[in-house]
Queue: 4 jobs
Job 1
Amino acid sequence: MIDVRGLRWRFRAADRESLRAVELTVPQGQTLVLCGASGSGKSTLLRACSGLVPHLYDGQLDGSVRTAGLDVASAGFDRLGRRIGLVSQHPRRQFFADRVIDELVFASENFGVDPDRIGANLEATVEQLSLAPLLTRRLSTLSGGQQQRVAIASALVHRPDLLLLDEPTSNLSASAIDEVVSALAAVKATGTTIVIAEHRLHAVAPIADRLVMMADGRVEQDWDPFSPATFTDEEAAALGLRSLSAPTAALPLAETGGARASGGSVPRPGLTVRDLTCTAAGQSILDVPYAEFPRGAVTAVVGENGAGKSTLLRVLAGLQRHRGAIALDGVDLPRRRRRGRTAMVHQDVGRQLFFASVRDEVAEAAPDVSSAAASRVLHRFGLATVADRHPLALSGGQQQRLAMATAGLSSRDVLLFDEPSSGVDRRNLDALVAVIRDAARRGAVVVLVTHDEALLARAADSRLVLTGSSRASVTMDG
């Protein structure tokens, strides 16, 4: 199904190759999981197998790629698209339609698939991924996790021979991950070849036939066949990979009257929220009667996809209109003033990178920080070797780390993190935890939105749970 021979790829103006003499054969019906550090070449290899490289991206290609019986370099997008389904790392960047149902049928209609067949495929896919409540929604109103599920569904409706997925579990709740993996297992049972680039190995290991680790643009190790039972957590840790065991919260949850720091310390003043409501198209999307986010502690906001977690962060940052009062250290803080006191790492960090190089991005984010301190944070996140590259030329994981690096240098009172571990490998998870905990130690208000239990267990002091009705149920670890 996939035959890669001597593949080399260098993006235009890049100082080094992203792929270096890659040799890889994937037979029909196999489910292969690509792993490795951020920037190792996983996403670029998926792009090469789909035809995005070299047709959409500018650069130099050597070697050959044959996918689904087609020579990728010479085949047109229309022929490749009929045989391949692709889910990119940032789903919203691949949407074409305005509403969910139109996006789901977009590819099939463009390929001229019979309407009755489209209807049958659509019904089955919607059921597999529990998308019925979203069908009439506008894509722009969905949460990041909901958009992820729609992107996966839209890649499946035309029933491709090959399915390529880049970080499909990022931004998904545990229950949504179960739905997606169950759907992928059903797709696998039909004989479809599946290639998944993923850091959260515990989520996809049960359906993997083979595990390939990439490093520095090459295939470093190849476990074929792959069995989760014979791949220990110690082996994964030695290779810098995430655990194959599903992480669990370090502490149970218990009801309390507000989000407060654990450990017996008296929480310092911070952000308080009273009678907060947000509406969209006449419907309530967020309802938080009361919540506290103390200084010197990390408050995690958790809940199912679509519960309003990202909306809450946008409100706290002053980016979202709302009703209700928000105060910092007991003083009411209007939206405009909140924007000046807050630093935020968004889900799609490519939208918040503005400067011509990684070094400039860090320098402009924290102009009062010394060059030595900036260099240290780049080393901490493994970005020193790409300091002169354009931020948008980085991999998704590297962009995520750059946004975290700039946040780590911020001296603002409130730091907000929206799914910051998306695309982050095991080694860089350590650096991410250090940034979050350092911010709390210096006395900032730190609010973390994540579905990543490994990050929650290491970084969070308390949790604020948003239910499916977007109403806050405040709980505390203890």
Job 2
Amino acid sequence: MLDTIAVENYRSLRRLVLPLRGCNVVTGPNGSGKSSLYRALRLLADSARNGAVNALAREGGLSSTMWAGPGTNGPVSLKLGFAGEDFGYAVDFGMPVPGESEFNLDPEIKSEAVWAGPVLRPSALLAQRSGPVVLLRDDEGEWRTAATLRPFDSMLSEIADPQAAPELLTLRERVRSWRFYDHVRTDSAAPARRPQIGTRTMILSHDGADLAAALQTIAEVGDSAALAQAVDDAFAGSRVEIRNSDGRFEVTLRQPGMLRALTAAELSDGTLRYLLWVAALLTPRPAGLTVLNEPEASLHPDLLPALAALIARSSEQSQVVVVTHAETLVAELRRQQRDVNAIELTKELGQTAIVGQGLLDEPSWHWPARG
């Protein structure tokens, strides 16, 4: 489980160090930095797949994503990191050397570090990268050169030797298990509304196309009682039925008083979105971290208590971060889950800050130095 997320110089996140627990909800007014925090978490996950450089380039390069307020006179540096009880990781992106390539929007990885424990200390370092050179610490505590990487390759994705760097391999697979769900489609042409070839689906896809198969998988090999309860909490007396026509699966919802079950094509956007969250959060294969961005979108306020119950149940198996505008959802989570970590963001002079967090309240955090 992650204890800390740290971001520096990304959009309005001049310096943000967040404490995390099992169930976390991030709220705040429009423009306070919630979306930037969500994107920063996505970039961290992309690092394990060697996709962070491309993602930053698609945002217009570092010049478009960097903090634009005061205190930007030093070298361009966008930093992302996280830490838990066992491992921590940080990466520092900078500008490419002018004239060496036409890919001028691609940032370069200037430094990376992996360490043991929740706080970076020289004695806790397990792997460090300065420029292209990656050093690993062996069992005797001695450093050796493990690789020379290209500036757009992350050591988290490129070094996977289970003998020489087991910690990097463990950390990489852990980060690759993170899941992000952001505005899954529920429009009339949404994939979730159409019958799809059904195969056992342990994890709902990001576009929700395999919703029917995911729900059927929960019913057969997951927590079928929780599935039934989640549907009944939202739509009293209703139940989900999966229609199988020659291997093509379709979601239907049978409701009291109706002579037939409603197909996915007939469901309201809110009803379909709620069923998507059911499939995502009751997965038989929980993620290390699940991040939901504005899950309340399209939902009627009466569905928010049921959604809160889903999130609270999921946080017992997977660390959850919810980014939301809905104060009702925050209140329901606090009511149903005693250990909710409610983080309210605000903006002060263009800089995102955590309401009520003073310097002494901030988790201990240190960035690795550039070489």
Job 3
Amino acid sequence: MIRSPDRATGSGWRKSSYSRGNGGACVVVAAGLPGAVPVRDSKNPEGPHLVFPGSAWSTFISGVKTGRPSL
């Protein structure tokens, strides 16, 4: 079983440095889980989150950086 970051305190979660500070639509990710990347909506920290395999997240981020995200 994969242990999630602490949703109550927000420990382990971080927002992209590219996100604006105006309260807009942002996702936050958590680090420190081997082979997994939890993702959640910044506006709903107590809500559900998704957990992606690390390799799939890396592929997605590479695609975003090159302007060709694969879905």
Job 4
Amino acid sequence: MNLKNYIRDIQGFPKEGILFKDITPLLNDPIAREYCLEILLSSLNGLKIDKVVGAESRGFFFGMLLADRLNAGFVPVRKPNKLPFKTISRSYNLEYGTDSLEMHVDAIKKGEKVLIHDDVLATGGTARALADLVHELGGEIVQFNFLMELSFLNGREKIKEHSIFTVITY
């Protein structure tokens, strides 16, 4: 199954000059979705995972599925002022501006094994911010995994000290 057939290109979203990779066709197809999930899980080869960190918002979809299959906790990382409890925060650059992410201060305990999941690795800004948040709380990153990597943006350079797995590379 070629999962690229389930990714739709949207020109000019969220702003002019960006070619957005829309994963909703993949989410809408239960067979393709399950196939993608199995690929993500196979990359972990039975590694112990205590928490799955998912980045708002598209990292939540497979992040929750991964946490469920791995019998792990799920940690939602959100944009500022979306989480109700005390948070830590990191700002980062992305391919079309800047943003910040927040995580609850009690989301990860020191020494917990963490899988970080997001839909796309682009410039690496979001991934670096996620790594910094996990490290601040004392978590040990086992792997980053992504549905897609836009390799021409060299995002993996920002997290090259970690294991990185992507299902689709552009």
